[in-house]
Automatic annotation (TrEMBL):
Belongs to the RUS1 family. It holds the Pfam family UVB_sens_C. The lineage of its organism: Eukaryota, Viridiplantae, Streptophyta, Embryophyta, Tracheophyta. InterPro entries: RUS_fam, UVB_sens_C, UVB_sens_RUS_dom. Residues 333-463 form the Root UVB sensitive protein C-terminal domain. This is Protein root UVB sensitive 5. It comes from the Eukaryota. Residues 85-324 form the Protein root UVB sensitive/RUS domain. It comes from Zea mays.
Length: 481
C-alpha cells in the first residue's frame, strides 16, 4: 500500500488538486557545473507525432526537469513504413485510412488508384453535358449562340466544385469520427443540409448574388453528404449480420428510390398550388413545415438503432450502471438511454483523454510526484489524475502508455466513474486514487462478464486511444511500492 503523502501534497478544495512546495526547474540545466548529477535519471518520455519527445528527468533532489528533443525519424510504425515516400506524411494521412496498409485489404490501394481517374473522366463528362442541359431549357437560346449557355454552365459547375470541396475536407480530416458515433453524425448531417437549403432559398430574394449563395448552399449540402454517407455505411454494416452487405445496400436503394419518386410527386403537386407558386412566403413556410417534420422523422429513425458495439457514450452508460448498481444494462436498454445529440464535453463526469503529464502536474513540478503516479499505475496502461478549480466538479485527466488499447480506455472510464461516485472525503489524494485502483481490479472482471451475458460484443469496443502523446516509461527510482 502507498503511504500517506506529505503535507505538501494535501488536496486543497477550491484550488488545484494538490500543491507541491518544491520549486519548479522547468527546462533548467541538469547541473550548474554542466555535468549530469550522479543520481539524475529519466523517468518517462512523451512522444508526439511530429517527432518531438518531451522527457521528464529527476535531477536527484526531487526536482523535475523537462527536456524537449526533436527527432527527424517518425514516431510510429505507420510513418516508418512511409518514411521513404515522396508524398508528405500529412497528405498520406489525409487520403489513406489510419493504420494503412495494415488496416485495409491488400487490393485497396490498387483499386483506389484506378478509381480516381475513373471519377475524373466522369466529372469531365458532367461538365460537358451541363451546358447542353441549360441551353435546352432556354439559357442562351435567345442569343443565337451557345456562349451564354457555356457561361452559365461554368458558373453552375463552379458552384458544384465549391460544394465538392466540403466533401473533400470532411472525408480527409474527420474520417475517424464515423465508426465511433454514426447516429450522431447522421443526425447532424441533416441539420447541416437544412442550413444549405436556407442559402438556396434566399437566392430568390437576392438573384444578383446567386453564385455565392448557391455555392454556400451547395457547400453546406456537400458537407452534410460527407457526414451522411460514411455514417450510413456504418449503419448498413450493422444491418448486415449475415455478411450480406451488398444485398442490404441494394434493398436500401429500393426503399430510397421509392421514397424519392413519391416525394417528387408530392412536391410537384404542392408546387402546382397557386399560393406556393405566387407567394415566396408561402413557399418558405411550406418548406419549413416539411423540413421540421423531416428532422423529427430522421431522429425517430436513428433512435430505433440498437448497436452492440461499445462507443464512448454507451461505455459511459455501462460503467456508470456497474459502478452504481453492480449491473450492466443490455444493448437494447442502453441504446434507448443513449442521447444521440449530446457532445462528449457535456457528459459527466468530464474526462479528458490524451492529456500531457505536464498538465496533470499543474503549476509545480516534482520528480517524487511523477514517481508516485508511475508506481500507482504500474499495472495499468494509462495514468489518471484530476484537476479541480473553484466549486466545479473535477475533470479527470488520462494519458496513455505506448501499449494502450481500447480496453485501457474502458478501464480508465470505469475508474473515473468510481472516483466521481465516491467523492474525496479527506485531504489525502493518493489513498483515494489507490482505493479506486483496488476497486477497479476487483470489479472490472465482473463488469466484463456481465457485458458478455448482456449481449455486448467485447470484440467491438470502439474506444480509440489518442494518437498523442504516447507515454514511454524509462525509469522508476524504487520499483517496489
Amino acid at each position: 500500500m502507498l503511504s500517506t503523502p506529505a503535507a505538501g501534497w494535501r488536496f486543497r478544495r477550491g484550488g488545484l488538486p494538490w500543491r507541491l512546495h518544491t520549486c519548479s526547474c522547468l527546462a533548467s540545466p541538469l547541473s550548474s557545473s554542466g555535468g549530469e548529477p550522479e543520481k539524475a535519471r529519466p523517468l518517462l518520455a512523451e512522444r508526439y507525432r511530429d517527432g518531438v519527445v518531451k522527457r521528464y528527468i529527476s535531477d536527484g533532489s526531487s526536482k523535475l526537469q523537462l527536456r524537449l528533443e526533436k527527432h527527424e525519424s517518425p514516431v510510429n510504425g505507420v510513418e516508418d513504413e512511409n518514411a521513404d515516400s515522396l508524398i508528405p506524411q500529412a497528405i498520406l494521412d489525409f487520403v489513406l485510412p489510419a493504420g494503412f496498409p495494415g488496416s485495409v485489404s491488400a487490393d485497396y490501394l490498387d483499386y483506389m488508384l484506378l478509381q480516381f481517374p475513373t471519377n475524373v473522366t466522369g466529372w469531365i463528362c458532367h461538365v460537358l453535358v451541363t451546358s447542353s442541359l441549360l441551353k435546352a431549357v432556354g439559357v442562351g437560346s435567345f442569343t443565337g449562340t451557345s456562349a451564354a449557355a457555356s457561361a452559365a454552365a461554368i458558373r453552375w459547375v463552379s458552384k458544384d466544385g465549391i460544394g465538392a470541396f466540403g466533401r473533400l475536407l470532411i472525408g480527409g480530416r474527420f474520417g475517424a469520427l464515423f465508426d465511433d458515433d454514426p447516429k450522431k453524425w447522421r443526425m447532424y448531417a441533416d441539420f447541416i443540409g437544412s442550413a444549405g437549403s436556407i442559402f438556396e432559398l434566399s437566392t430568390t430574394l437576392y438573384p444578383g448574388y446567386f453564385l455565392p449563395l448557391a455555392s454556400l448552399g451547395n457547400l453546406a449540402k456537400a458537407i452534410a453528404r460527407g457526414f451522411k454517407d460514411p455514417s450510413f455505411r456504418v449503419i448498413q454494416n450493422h444491418f448486415a449480420e449475415s455478411g450480406n452487405l451488398g444485398e442490404v445496400a441494394a434493398k436500401e436503394e429500393v426503399w430510397e428510390v421509392g421514397a424519392q419518386l413519391l416525394g417528387l410527386s408530392i412536391g410537384v403537386l404542392i408546387m402546382d398550388k397557386t399560393g406556393v407558386k405566387s407567394s415566396y412566403l408561402t413557399l418558405v413556410l411550406t418548406w419549413l413545415s416539411v423540413r421540421l417534420l423531416h428532422l423529427w422523422l430522421r431522429y425517430q429513425s436513428i433512435s430505433v438503432l440498437k448497436f452492440r458495439t461499445i462507443n464512448l457514450k454507451r461505455g459511459r452508460i455501462l460503467v456508470k450502471s456497474h459502478v452504481a448498481q453492480h449491473t450492466v444494462p443490455g444493448y437494447v436498454a442502453c441504446n434507448e438511454e443513449e442521447n444521440i445529440l449530446t457532445w462528449e464535453r457535456y457528459l459527466r463526469p468530464q474526462v479528458s483523454f490524451g492529456v500531457p503529464m505536464e498538465r496533470m502536474l499543474g503549476g509545480d513540478k516534482s520528480s517524487d510526484m511523477v514517481n508516485r503516479l508511475l508506481k500507482l499505475y504500474k499495472n495499468e496502461k494509462y495514468i489518471l489524475f484530476f484537476e479541480q478549480f473553484g466549486s466545479r466538479e473535477p475533470t479527470f485527466l488520462v494519458t496513455f502508455k505506448e501499449s494502450a488499447t481500447s480496453m485501457s480506455v474502458l478501464r480508465s472510464l470505469w475508474q473515473a466513474h468510481w472516483l466521481h461516485k465516491n467523492q474525496l472525503r479527506q485531504d489525502e489524494v493518493f489513498p483515494w486514487l489507490e482505493e479506486s485502483i483496488v476497486a477497479l481490479e476487483n470489479g472490472f472482471t465482473d463488469f466484463l462478464e456481465q457485458l458478455g451475458s448482456a449481449g455486448w460484443d467485447q470484440d467491438l469496443i470502439i474506444l480509440k486511444v489518442p494518437k498523442e502523446p504516447v507515454l514511454v516509461l524509462e525509469h522508476l527510482e524504487d520499483q517496489e511500492v
